[in-house]
Structures are given as C-alpha cells and as structure tokens.
Design a protein that fits this description.
By secondary structure, the chain is α+β, with helices and mostly antiparallel strands. The chain contains 21 helices and 24 strands. The protein has a six-stranded parallel sheet with strand order 10-15-14-11-13-12.
Length: 624
C-alpha cells in the first residue's frame, strides 16, 4: 500500500488543498495545524495527486520506504531508492529493523534468472513469454552480463543474429564493426549492408572547440546549399554542455535547429538561474529575476513569502532588493522566512559589492555560483543515485560552460565598458535569436545517449577526444566498454555521411588545455576514412599542462584530478603581493598594482596597458 502524508500550519496551504477537492483535517485535536493523508495501491494515482498539489503549493516530495518495526515497536523508514543505487557508506536497516552502515556491495549470482515484471507504462516488452526492459545504458540499470549469461542460463536457447543493416552504407558499418570488436564482453556479430560502400568517413582535427563548431556549421551550410534538407542532419555530442559552442555558431549563421531529449543551452534551468542572479545584481528592480533565484537553491521561502515580499516592495515604492534587505519590516513574514531572507541578502550584498568594483563577469559568475550555495546544492543532489548523479554532473558542466561564455566575453571587453550590462544584453540577443523557428526544417542536436533508435542521412559526432568521448568519468570508473558501445550507437545513426571531429585544445575553467584524440578513432581502419595518412601515423603526442608523461588527459587534467575537482574540497585561497608578476589565460602577462578587500587584485597587463580588477580566487591567473 502506498501513502501520501502532508501537514502544515499555514492557512494558505489548507485552503489550496481544499480548492483541489482534497479532504484536510486538523493535525491533532485542538491543534492549529492541518494534515492531509491518502492511500492507494496505485502509485501512479498518488503521484498524479502530488502533481496537482505541486501546481498550487511549493512542496518537496520525499519518497520513503516504511520498514519493519524494531524491537522497541518503532517503525523505521528510509528514503526509497533502488537496490542498484546502494553504495558503501550508505545506511540501511538490518533484518531486525535496526540501522546499519553498508560496508560493501556485491553482485551475487542467483540459482535462476530474474526478469523484469510486466508493469504497465514502464517500457517493458514481452517476447515469447520473456519480459525485458528497453534499456542499454548502465546508469539506468542495464547490465550486459544479462545478455552474455543468457545462453548459460538457457543452454538449449538458439541465437539468431540480425546482422543485415538496412540503414547505413558498408563503410559506416565496417567502422562500427571494427570499433566494437575491441570490447571483450559482447556477442560477436558483423553488420552488413546492400546499400553499397558509400563515402569515406570524414575525420577532422580542429584547432579548438570554436574551430570545431565553425567546421561543423560550415559543412551544414555547404550540404544545405547542395540540396540537403536541414532535417536530414544531426550533430551528436557526449555531454549536454558541449552543445553551447555549436548552438552559438548556429545562431550566428542564422541556421534553425532543435535539441532532442533536452533543452537548448540558454533555456536550461540552471543557466536561467545563473543569468537571473546576474540580472538581479545589475537591476535591483527585476522582480522576475528575484522570484526565480530567492529560493534556488531551496531556502525555505515559499510562494506565500515571495508574494508578501513583492507586495511590500510595490506598496512602499522601493526596489524588491531594498524590501528584501529589510526583511524584518515585511508584514506577515514568519520568523523562519525572515532569517532565511536575511541570510540570502547578506550573500547578495557581498556579490553586489564585487559587481560594483567591476570584476570580470567570469569571476563574478563563479563567485555567485559558489557563495550562493548553488554548486554545493547540485553536488549534494549528485548523491541521489546513478541517474541523479549524471543529471547533476551535467548541470554542473553546463554552468562551467556558462562561465566559459563569460570568460570569452571578458577577453574581448574594454575595461571602460559596463561589462555586466553588456554581457546580459548579448545573452538576451542570443537567446532571442535562438527561439526563432523556420518552416523548412531544423538541424537536430542531441547527446549520444538520446540518439538510440534514430537515423539521419548525415551525422556529425563532435568532441572525439579522450576524456571527452570516452568520458573521463567512465575511464575512472572502468566504463570504457560501455563508452565504446555508445560510440557504436552514434556511428550507426548515420545513413550516408559520417563526420568525426576533435579539437587539439579546449577551454576548461578559463584555461586553454590539450588532450589526445579519442582512442575510438584509432580503432577505425584508415582505409575507411578520408584522412588515411593522419590515421596511419596514429595520435600525435600531446603535452598537457600539469599532466604526467603518457597520461591521457581532459582539459589539461588527468582523469583522476578531473573527478577530484568535484569532491567539494576547496583549494587554499590564492594571495598576491604588490609588484608580483602574473599571467592571465586571456589577457596575457601583467603585474599586480593593487590588492583590495574581498580577494580582488588589480593587474596592469603588458599587451595593451590596461588595468583590470580580478578575483584572485576565481580568475584564471597564476604567478609567472
């Protein structure tokens, strides 16, 4: 039996539930509080009720599993999660209902196979009485051993290989066959086609991620000019954050596009949140920005509290910033809300002082994300299981990309300009152009995970570098074979033409960093590509700042140090002295001419003689 339980003390909450037709009763006899409870065997029915409530109230849904009673008669409960998400160090109950810490997690073989239950609306399929789940990705619980062990579980089973491919040309299939043959775990099969050999696979090395985007978009323009439809072209990438540079280039070239399985870069929630923080710093009267960020991450300020703050601002004729800064004077605001709002405004005041000092937008944005607790909240969210981990890490990568956008803007901005306002204006122009749609087809952008089951005459796969694809996280966690299966999926999305692009360097955290091209490219026979000489020579040695000899790196970091950057351990604060020589990733060499409160340094740069204020903690600056 599944249950919903809600309680509260606010009149607005009780009235909102009653408007939905739900039965609300006193929490206890004589109590001013209220309680709503419901039970059903249909979990879907309860979750639909939760969504109705969420439309009226700002609520947080916590799924708990009610467990057996302990010897004292107390019914223990823990947050619900699937067994596949358990990790050492987590807490669960033992057979007696007491709490215990998980020491290790093992996968134990069973005496007989276990298959998914045939549950409605969960994408399960039935074939000859066997129920299977349509998932091929490990983070969603798929395990290739279920397939590999099938013949051991059923010795009389007959394997039928479906090897003829009706989509792709033979060159594309031969490349896919050659790459996947490097996996040790798998059932060997050789795809073949009657569609002919087809064009060679286009492998291109570009200077950086901007050159890569210009190449991809330039080829799209050429293909369209030659008669191809935009709807026949797809650009694939390993992580959502990689779409940003490609999207910006498409917008500048006025090429309409869509993002499948996700949202466009500037429409993603975390990007909108970050921009809203900057917008409110630039304009204290921006009510829309304030209402978006004041409870993001959650600070215990619900809709009722927000409406009272905004109404008070309008009533006394001051900016919403001024009203929020005097939280104790807002009528009807509870003590907890006053405390939370006061703490929030103290952080925003610190950030406003930094903005007034004219620090670069990239530094200011990093300070915003750090000091408001936004990145901390995402990192905490990453502990919620495999899928939540990947989602939260993807959102952190998107924010890193937005910081990179700001750093690119800083590199071209004049020191006399009102940089924050100008930056926000440029973002607004890009987002506005990004929203346009055209009737004659859209280029498709998506991650490789979302490409499964789709097909396009022309496919581009961007970011074919070790640490990007295969991803550094997969290399750290021993997931190379799953990454190779993902590359196989991407390659076989192409029907006629396949482009594989990689960059010699990428900007990561404001630094131009170097890495090796993807090992998957070297697994494709040279005769299948149009760059035989380059592939015959093998990957060029790439020296990465701070990387050990021979180590594969991403963004100038080893795979391990990349993972360590998300552990939450903060590096010691950087300090500089007057007269100290420094170098900045974008502005070049300079000398420290001033040190100001709040970790701000003033640097005069040799190239153009300009003086700029930088935040030592966040700027890509180091001693020379």
């Amino acid at each position: 039996m599944h249950r919903i339980s809600m309680f509260g003390y606010d009149v607005e909450g009780r009235e909102a539930l009653q408007r939905l037709g739900l039965s609300v009763r006193p929490a206890r006899r004589g109590s001013m509080g209220w309680r709503y409870e419901s039970a059903s065997k249909d979990m879907g029915l309860l979750l639909s009720t939760v969504e109705r409530i969420r439309g009226e109230l700002d609520i947080h849904l916590q799924l708990n599993a009610r467990l057996v009673r302990n010897p004292n008669g107390v019914a223990n409960s823990l947050p619900f999660m699937p067994a596949s998400s358990l990790r050492p160090g987590m807490v669960m109950t033992d057979a007696d209902g007491n709490f215990d810490v998980i020491d290790k997690v093992e996968r134990l073989p069973l005496d007989m196979p276990v298959y998914d239950l045939d549950i409605d609306r969960v994408h399960n399929f039935v074939a000859n009485g066997l129920v299977t789940h349509n998932s091929i990705y490990g983070f969603r619980g798929a395990d290739v051993r279920n397939i590999l062990d099938f013949q051991d579980d059923f010795p009389d089973a007959r394997v039928v290989k479906l090897e003829q491919n009706y989509r792709s040309t033979q060159r594309i299939l031969s490349a896919a066959n050659a790459v996947i043959a490097n996996n040790r775990g798998g059932i060997a099969k050789r795809l073949w086609s009657e569609l002919g050999e087809g064009d060679p696979i286009h492998v291109r090395e570009l200077e950086d991620e901007h050159g890569e985007a210009r190449f991809v978009v330039g080829e799209i323009e050429r293909l369209v000019d030659e008669g191809a439809a935009r709807a026949e072209i797809a650009v694939l990438y390993r992580t959502n954050a990689m779409s940003r540079v490609i999207e910006d280039t498409l917008v500048r070239r006025e090429i309409a596009y869509q993002v499948i399985g996700g949202t466009k870069f500037y429409e993603r929630a975390e990007i909108k949140d970050a921009i809203a923080y900057l917008s409110w710093l630039a304009n204290p009267f921006d009510v829309v920005a304030f209402t978006r960020i004041v409870n993001s991450p959650r600070r215990g300020l619900g809709r009722t509290s927000l409406s009272r703050i905004v109404a008070h601002s309008a009533t006394i004729g001051v900016s919403v910033w001024e009203a929020a800064a005097a939280a104790e004077q807002i009528p009807g605001l509870g003590a907890a809300a006053v405390k939370s709002l006061t703490r929030f405004m103290a952080r925003m005041t610190e950030l406003s002082e930094l903005a007034e000092q004219g620090v670069p937008v990239g530094d200011l944005l990093e300070a915003v994300l750090s000091r408001t607790g936004y990145t901390d909240a995402l990192e905490a969210e990453a502990l919620g299981g495999a899928e939540k981990t990947i989602e939260a890490q993807g959102r952190l990568e998107n924010l890193d990309q937005l910081v990179e956008v700001a750093r690119e803007f800083d590199a071209g901005a004049s020191e006399q300009e009102d940089t924050l306002d100008l930056f926000l204006q440029q973002l607004a122009l890009v987002a506005d152009a990004d929203a346009r749609r055209e009737d004659d087809g859209l280029v498709t952008l998506m991650t490789l995970h979302n490409a499964k089951g789709l097909e396009y005459p022309t496919v581009f796969i961007a970011g074919c570098e070790d640490g990007v694809f295969p991803h550094s996280r997969a290399l750290d966690e021993g997931g190379l074979e799953e990454e190779r299966r993902l590359f196989y999926v991407g390659v076989t999305r192409a029907k006629r033409e396949l482009y594989l692009a990689y960059a010699r360097r990428r900007s990561v955290f404001g630094q131009a960093t170097y890495g090796l091209r993807s090992r998957f490219l070297d697994e494709i026979p040279a005769q299948l590509t149009d760059s035989e000489e380059e592939l015959r020579l093998g990957p060029a040695a790439a020296i990465s700042a701070g990387a050990g000899a021979g180590g594969r790196t991403i963004g100038g970091r080893s795979a391990q140090s990349w993972a360590d950057s998300r552990t939450g351990e903060s590096a010691p604060a950087k300090t500089y002295r007057l007269g100290e020589d420094v170098v900045h990733a974008a502005f070049g060499e300079g000398v420290v001419t001033g040190v100001e409160p709040g970790g701000v340094i003033v640097v005069r740069f040799a190239d153009d003689g300009s003086e700029r204020k930088l935040m030592a903690e966040y700027a890509p600056v180091s001693r020379r």
